[in-house]
Amino acid sequence: MAFGPFLLLAVMEGLVTSAVLALAAAGLSLVFGVMRVVNVAHGEFFMLGAVLAWVVAALVPGPPALAFVAALVIAPLLVGALAAAADALVLKRLNYDPEATIVATIGLLYMIQQATLSLYGPNANPVAAPFDWRIQLPWFGYSGYKLFVILAAVGVLLALWTFMNRTRAGLIMRATQVDRTTARSFGINVDRVYMGTFALGAGLAALAGVLIVPISQAHYLMGGDPLLLSFIVVIIGGLGSLRGTLIAALVIGLSDGVISMFFTPTLAKILATLLVAMVLVFRPQGLFGAKV
Amino acid sequence: MKVWTLHLGLIVVLFAAQFWLSPYHSTNLARIMVLAVFAMGYNLAFGYTGLLSLGHALFFAAGMYGAGLPAQLWGVTAGPALILGILAGGGMAAAVGLLALRTAGVSFMIVTLMFAQAGYLAILYFAAVTGGDEGFTLPAAARSIAGLDLSSDTPRFLAALTLFAVGLLVSLALVRSPFGRSMVAIRENEERSRMLGLNPFTVKLVALVLSGLYAGAAGAAYGILFGYAGASFATIQYSILPMLYVLLGGAGTILGPFLGAALMFALIEVASGVTSAYLFLVGAALVALVLFAPRGILGTIRERWAKWLP
Question: Which of A38, A107, A277 faces B114 most closely, judged by CB atoms?
């Protein structure tokens, strides 16, 4: 294959990675921005989304498309409900103290992971794609489902942007982000905003998990890599800035494929983690300079 | 006086324990004492200086490989290997501290986490030397000191106890020294201690290096006493464990790390008879501790009944 088509393929694969990553990282960024909570269990919400997609696909009869649509609705709702419960039972009672919530979400991570291992098992299970059109380009055929993932992620992110900037609920969330105390004195129920934000962030991760599962497989340890990548994206994009997060997701997703071509994945990960550490040490506002 | 009696008393009780414990349990107790040294080091940073690190596995692994690799490659014996391991732990903590201590709070946690993750991946990447995931067993020469074979029960127990006793008494002396007071001052109020003429960066760096020396000693001892070094000791889990021990036993108490390590060990021992998902228990314990007992067991006892507890 000539270089041009090869590059095109790499870019398309990169866009799929970016799309899923942007969804997961947007959730992490939202939670950090509004609540100032670093959710270490975020990757497990992603994993739960994928595993629930498999469960729904196994339970819903009929064509794969129907089961998939059902999973797209059910999985984020269930995961969102679980996150809301975690918020009410744990995070709220810690008063959202940043360090205590990190310890608590590490605890949640272990609990979710081990509960999944016990109930779902150690196997990786595939889920059928809702459709298997192939788009025949002059040089290679490309999975139509992967293009659908990109479009779906763009759609969800546009909806999220509209929600945050054009609706009353979004306005209330942004007000809480700017100043929790003032928001409360204006009659905003901050507790409910936090619970909703945490559920929304977890739901976005679960949605990303559902979208990825026909491409990769559902496995109880699959939350680790998205967590690390989401951290990288959120930190490089500037903690709590949604726009920076999206740009960073695009950059990381696209460069991920390219970097892996030149370095082994392990070396690429070493460099990425060191980069994140250095960015936090020397440029805590993020590489893109977006305001925190 | 009361304080020294209590701590020396514990060491005597532990020494006596080997005579009535079965070999299985005395091996476990040796393991607990080594892990308690790790947790005591973590406690110096977290409990006394307020540095919540998520990267102590890096220092533990530095000690383990700092002792294990020279033993494996050049046939270094146990004594020098232990010293090399301790220095590796301290050196790694100094390198991480110089960078990470420019940040605080949540950023410090993430930076230390990232460094530790990079360290873990580096062990995997250089698998040709480190053995990667599979690790390597230490040669017999590296497991004897002054003619004593550390792979047999009694010398191993005594070696672990010696390390534990030294660690315990040094940290007791440390926190009662002027430097220990300045560590606590910085934990309580960094700005105010700066006004008093302390340099918070230096104090925190020294505390972190001391903590790294402890972690390195524990890692090296673990490798030498139990004969194995592997990448699994560099995973995030080994950063979480000392935190869990310290939170359970009581952050900022001298005996807390040992108590937490022993209780958690016993809890997992009991639970693993029932279920294989013992990590669930670790998670639940973390959540329960931050929710209901942020001061841990000894922290609560000190607050209520025994103000004199160091």
Answer: A277
Domain residue limits at A24: 14-282
At B272-302, the pLDDT tens digits run 777 667 788 888 888 988 888 888 888 888 8
Cβ <8 Å between A107 and B286: yes
Residue-level length of chain B: 310
- CA pair distance B240, B54, nearest whole angstrom: 7
- Residues contacting residue A12 through CB under 8 Å, at least 6 positions apart: A142, A146
Long-range interactions of A182-188: CB distance < 8 A, separation 24+: none
Cα–Cα distance for residue pair A184/B310, rounded to 1 Å? 42
Mean pLDDT of all residues in B100-115: 88
Is A289 inside any structural domain?
A: no
Strand-strand pairing, B136-137 and A141-143: unpaired
Residues of B in contact with A280 (CB under 8 A): 103, 107, 110-111, 114
Q: How far is the alpha carbon of B56 from chain A, nearest alpha carbon, in Å?
A: 15
Q: Is residue B150 part of a domain?
A: yes
Instruction: For residue range A228-287, list pLDDT tens digits in order.
Output: 888 888 888 876 677 888 888 888 888 776 666 667 778 878 887 888 888 888 877 766
CA-based nearest residue to B276, from A118, A220, A112, A120: A118
Tokens of A146: 């992967």
Q: Which residue in B46, B99, B109, B121 has the most chain A C-beta atoms within 10 A of its own C-beta, making it the best mutation to test that interface? A: B121
Contact state of A107 with B287 under an 8 Å Cβ cutoff: yes
Q: How many structural domains comprise chain B?
A: 1
Looking at the complex, does the CB of residue B101 fall below 8 Å from at least one CB of chain A?
Answer: no
Residue of chain A minimizing CA distance to B104: A281
Q: Which of B114, B247, B280 sits opposite A273 (nearest CB)?
A: B114
Measure the N-to-C terminal CA separation of chain B; round to a whole number of Å.
12
In one-letter notation, the amino acid at residue B83 is: I
Q: Which of A9-18, A150-159, B48-57, B111-120 has the lowest mean pLDDT?
A: A9-18
| Residue A164: both structure tokens together | 């945050």
Q: Of A203, A223, A227, A228, whose CA–CA distance to A213 is shortest?
A: A223
For position A270, which CATH number holds? 1.10.3470
Tell me the per-residue pLDDT of A169-180, one tens digit each, with 9 for 90 and over.
Answer: 989 988 888 888
Q: Which domain holds residue B120?
A: 25-235
Per the structure, the count of domains in chain A is 1
Separation between Cα atoms, residue B174 and residue A268, nearest integer Å: 42
Contact between A267 and B125 using a beta-carbon 8 Å cutoff = yes
Strand partners, B144: B149
At position A180, the amino acid (one-letter code) is: R
Chain A touched by B247 (CB under 8 Å):
yes
CA–CA dist B224, B142 (Å, integer): 7
Residue B278, in any domain of the structure: no
Cβ contact, residue pair A270, B118, below 8 Å:
yes
Say if residues B60 and B38 touch (Cβ distance below 8 Å).
yes
Minimal CA separation from A68 to chain B, in Å: 30
Tell me how close the Cα of A282 comes to any Cα of chain B, in angstroms.
8
Residue A161 maps to a domain? yes
- Among B54, B247, B264, B280, the residue to mutate for chain A (most A Cβ within 10 A): B280
Cβ-based contacts of B247 with chain A (< 8 Å) = 103
